[in-house]
Amino acid sequence: MSDVKITPLTDGPLEVDGEVSIVAPDGTVLRETSKAYLCRCGHSKSKPFCDGSHKREGWTEASD
After folding, report:
1. What average pLDDT score do residues 36-43 get?
2. Of 28, 44, 50, 54, which sits with the fewest C-beta atoms within 10 Å of its C-beta?
3. 53 secondary structure, DSSP code
4. How far apart are CA 12 and CA 52, in angstroms?
């Protein structure tokens, strides 16, 4: 199994670096990838993935 690193980017998404499968609650595999950006702000229209909405909404970590 490869190492996976998850880094919260300043005022942005979680950066997932490493071989992962991202799975929906029903077990459906959404994506198998070595790099993904996951939403932290709650505004993304493509959850669980980041679509850049945090910038448009002015979301910051302090507003968490």
Report:
1. 97
2. 28
3. H
4. 8
Task: Identify the sign of the CA torsion 29, 8, 42, 11.
Answer: negative
Distance of alpha carbon 43 from the chain centroid: 12
| Residue located via tokens 């005022």 | 11
Answer for the pair 32, 20: CB distance below 8 angstroms, yes or no. Answer: yes
| Maximum pairwise Cα distance, the chain | 37
- CA-CA distance, 18 to 53, in Å (whole number)? 24
What's the pLDDT score for residue 62?
84
What is the 3-state composition of the chain as percent helix, strand, coil, each rounded to the nearest 5?
10, 40, 50
Asked if the model's pLDDT at residue 1 lies above 60, the reply is no
Count CB atoms within 10 A of the CB of residue 27.
6
Ordered domains of the chain (ranges, CATH): 5-58 (3.40.5)
